[in-house]
Amino acid sequence: MAQTFLLISDHPEDPSFLAEIAAHHGAQVQTVPEVNAAVGVLASQECAGVFIDVDAQGRLREFESALQAKFGLLGGGNLPAVLFHFLSDRNLAENRELTTSPLFANFIQRPTQEHEDAARFYSRYLKAGASRNANDLEDFLGERGGVQYLKIEHSDQKQEVAEAVRQYLMQGKIPPRIANIIANSVDEVIMNAIFDAPTDDFGRPVYTATERNQSRALTDREVSLMKIGFDGYYVGVTVVDQWGSLDRGRLLHHVSINYKDSDYTVKQGQAGAGLGLATIFQGGATLIYECTARKQTKVTLIYRAYDNYRSFKNQFHFFQAKFHE
């Protein structure tokens, strides 16, 4: 029996976009714009995903209330946040209130171009993330996407790896400006793994006040794994740490900051201020976090390798935050 995606929307573009996703995923779509009726569907059948238009005023809060009245908070664990996908015409920085929702896990800004490619890409993501601790980089890339592995064993490798990534991308004929952006994003993610992830026995960050240019050999647990691949269409990078110390609230706060807002400034010398994550995501990256508490955090960056900056900057992308206890 085909899986069902539930669509809670009366936005004119959503049915066709989700139908494309379903076609690639081997699923069917049931569109139910009215919130209470949608909750009734969830009560009567299992859905592989729930896509909700969050631009409609009051719809998300109404849906949360109806869901809680019917199932209790998140269905007593039977309706995990990762099941829900928020659809919006606005970017996440303009939608910061969404991050306070207990249902927030997947955020999609509707594609403005190449809708079929966007649907195919999101379908690939749904398949890759279907199981716990999945989201392997190999699953995101096409058949031509060979993946290389590297251990980060010293803090000095951060800059070396970023430069190696830049050279790798330029060898793949990616324009230097775009290669630089991706390399800088990799540098930021590695820095987070080296300096922000390690915690003490009480869960407190160890290197909060440490300068980010500190040179040190990493302990066995501080060693991180990096993977990179390019299939001629998408570039993907995954960095995995062994701590699982990522704080959901802090992550969502940082990734949704409007870094272009002149009212937001980073204090000089402040470690881990989070502006980097907002820059990465708002700069066009698909950004996927998966954290298993006290064990590991896996972050994956995916970029479509356009040959011009305008298309690159405006590419279809999405955000996911998936947490396990």
Outline:
globular
Spatial gap, N to C terminus: 31 Å
Helix content: 25-40%
Radius of gyration (CA) equals: 20 Å
**What is the helix/strand order?**
EHEHEHEEHHEHHEEHHEEHE
- What spatial order of strands do you see in the largest sheet? 2-1-3-4-5-11-9-10-8-7-6
Spans of at least 5 consecutive residues whose pLDDT stays below 50 are: 262-274
- The share of residues in extended strands comes to 15-25%
The overall pLDDT, averaged over residues, is 90
The overall strand count is 11
The number of helical elements comes to: 10
The biggest sheet amounts to: 11 strands, mixed
Structural class: alpha/beta
Report on this structure:
34% of the residues lie in helices and 22% in strands. The chain has 325 residues and is α/β, with parallel strands linked by helices. Helix 6 (157-171) packs antiparallel against helix 7 (176-196). The longest helix has 21 residues, at 176-196. The chain is globular, with a radius of gyration of 20 Å. The protein starts with a strand and ends with a strand.
